[in-house]
Amino acid sequence: MSGRDSEAEGLPGTAPAAAGAAAIVAATAAATATASAAATAAAEAAARQAYGRLLSWLAWQWRDIAAAEDALAEALLAALLHWPRAGVPARPEAWLLTAARRQLLKAARHQRVVEDPAVTVLFPDEATPATEPPAVPDARLRLMFVCAHPAIDAPVRSALMLQTVLGIDAARIARACLVAPEAMTKRLVRAKAKIKATGLRFEEPEAAELPQRLAAVLEAIYGACTLDWNEDEAAGPAEALADEALHLARVVVSLLPTQPEALGLLALLELNASRAAARQDAQGLLVPLHLQDVTRWDRQLIASAMAHLRAAAAWQHAGPFQLEAAIQAAHASRQRTGCTPWGDIRALYETLVALHPSMGARIGHALAVAYAVDDASAGLALLAGIDTPQRHTHQPWWAAQAHLLQRAGARDEALAAYERALALSRSPVLRATLAARRRALAGPAP
Hints:
Shape: globular
Strand content: under 5%
Largest sheet: none
Order of helices and strands: HHHHHHHHHHHHHHHHHHHHH
Number of helices: 21
Radius of gyration: 23 Å
Distance between the termini: 49 Å
Structural class: mainly alpha
């Protein structure tokens, strides 16, 4: 969400964490015996820090997402071949951009269209000043609004943004969306093919069109922030992706300050970010929200979130992001009062579930009810009521089940649920946390 760099060859200065780019580098490095460790490390670093920025700029300029992805992959491979001999360039991102642009132009020449005005206009003289500033100043956010075009199937718009703009691989997106990785991959391939086949124009939507495309953009930003925390070793630090989501949410609000759900999402992300310092204990294990040290919460971020939440509420048009932000705001009140208002949190969850009955909302509701009435069985009954096929492979459901079974005194059932939650967890931090809880419940070995 934050962490802006200086501009490189006209690129908007932002620094996303591109996990998918690292996978490209790793795959090509395995087949490139001449790549030195230093060059590989430099390419991986450039990919992680700049993949989303470079891809967004190339796709916007070339008007072809798939071609931009292919060209950037070729540039990364060229870096692995060239940098060990010539040395790592002073500006790796600029080198990758130049190599990718050459690849795109080479492909255009091969197709005998390089002289077509429709192609040459895509690469204007960089010295020529723009006639007017773009309506959406962030290149990645601009491409996200393009991915929200009405011609693209609604169910895949947010996933397309996560993969194309933020560099998240299809398997990780699939887990977040509770679908099979193969199904998600097919959806994304079909979406890109449709963009190319239908000649979808990459024109930036006018200001009047932004609100109609906003919902999918907000979902993608939220999805980036809620992917499993530090999900796997190769995914890169989750804080960088969360920072990127916060940055994009702030840009959206600057563009659409009267959209209550945009304000609600920004408040939600600010509240989540305010607790970063308290999220883990001295051993590196996760600390439940209601047990975190409130003195370590960022008061400035909380105050900003509260202001945005009040601004959203003034429009009197509640939505899921506003309700989720209100739930987190209720938790934040413990910093002032010293206690968690479980009754209020329960009521907010009930409203959220009625409006948007997602798996996460229903699990949160079950936990809130258990704490509000001080009866784990009440929460367990609600968890049992989530009777969907996804439940059996949904790690948060099993973690909540284990926790409530432990509170209910059902030791053996809780141990089994912890085992299931552990088997479904990819995050090293989460696995360590669940394992520690299970060991504490099992007690010393006989």
